[in-house]
Amino acid sequence: MTTNDSNTQSAIAALSTIIGYLGSEVATSAHFERLLWPQRFHNDLNWQNLAKEAFLMPMGGPLHRAVFVVVDKLIEHGVFKGKECENMLGTAFYGDTRLTYTIHDLGVGGRASERRAVRNGFWVRAIDQMSLTSMPTGTSPEDGNITPTVRAGKAVSLLTLEYEDERQREAGGPPVVRDDTGPVNCSTFLQLGISEATGIAMAIVVRVVFKNPFFILWLLPLWLKIVMAAWTVPREPLARPSVANTGGDRNLVFEVHDLKHGFLLIDGNPSLVLQFFRYYGHPVRCRVREGMQMWIVVAFGLLFPAGLLCSIMWMPIGMQYLWLGYQLYATFAMYIYRCLGGSQWASTEERVAKTFADSKDGVLVLSCDNEVAVKAKLSRTYVNNIAEGCEVVRNLLVNRQRGGTGTGWVGMVSEEVTKL
């Protein structure tokens, strides 16, 4: 090896180390939440999402810091202690919104329950993906010609949920969104493969141009993703409605407390709504699958150190440049992914939000593999500040109490803002 080659190799090694440090700082546990629940986070197949997955979701870069965050959280929750030990809530297996909700039993004197944990909160996460469009500015109470300053525009959302009989569904009805508790399907595997398109391309270049066996380094992320999806942990689906557990025919109102993102009221039968606040989507405990998933997460953290070692010790100079360039690209892709909020790209929540936005009447059907379906109707309006939002919610709850248990009160959500 000449002096110039030695100097070049030293410079590449130094740059690789810097990239490893910077890249590991931007990688988050959200990358592994996506891999641990591929049915949820790869559930919206379209050209826009395929482009995002192909160019902004490679996982061949420095991920070791994010791996330690995931592993530390699993240890903290006691998942490593043994079979069915502790719980998955709050880990990369099953995220926690850390929000609370209150049940308003408006049919019995307007009583409200104590605050309870939302947990994973599927509908809360989905509605949070909707943008604040057509924000009304309103008028000042003192002067109808003065437009007040909007400092904290919020959405007031009213979601009505009810069971849907799939056998009686008619053609041309509401749009259907498949849920994410079933087995991994071909669409999910396709999207996982597309997410490593840049790695596959680099592996082909190395194999054809350099004829070097280290092309396998660029294919390892894809292989780990496929194995991880094949061994994914099953999820709790929606339960079928039963006469003994419906809570009667009377619906209740669930108020979610989340002032950072807006106001949300959910109207529905407790036997249905409470599933989304409790165990819907929770991992079905299987020690073998859980262990396999955890070891694959650890393997992702070893990809960059292993690649760096192979680059310094055995790769020719040309391949070292190629490996360095790919690491730089992967790091830059993670920066864009994080800065643009890519953790929900192609997810079921994003798909539900888009379906609500595109639906004329704000209605969709969430369909499960076990023939259980949920019809959801969303009414939504906007307020200029938190005080207006609290007043709208209060008036909605009062009107709901006066209007009984019917679903006709959903039209009130668009009327309340005009009274402010």
Provide an overview of this structure.
Helix content is 46%, strand content 12%. By secondary structure, the protein is α+β, with helices and mostly antiparallel strands. Strands 1, 2, 3, 4, 5, 6, 7, 8 and 9 form a 9-stranded mixed β-sheet that branches. Helix 4 crosses helix 7. The longest helix has 27 residues, at 287-313. The N and C termini lie far apart (79 Å).
Order of helices and strands: HHHHHEEEHEEHHHEEHHHHEEHH
Indicate the proportion of strand residues: 5-15%
**How would you characterize the largest beta sheet?**
9 strands, mixed
The whole-angstrom Rg is 25 Å
Report the principal-axis shape.
Answer: elongated
**Low-confidence parts:** 134-145, 405-410
Distance from N terminus to C terminus (CA atoms, Å) equals 79 Å
* Average of pLDDT: 85
State the helix count. 15
Total beta strand runs: 9
The portion of residues assigned to helices is 40-55%
Helix/strand/pairing category: alpha+beta
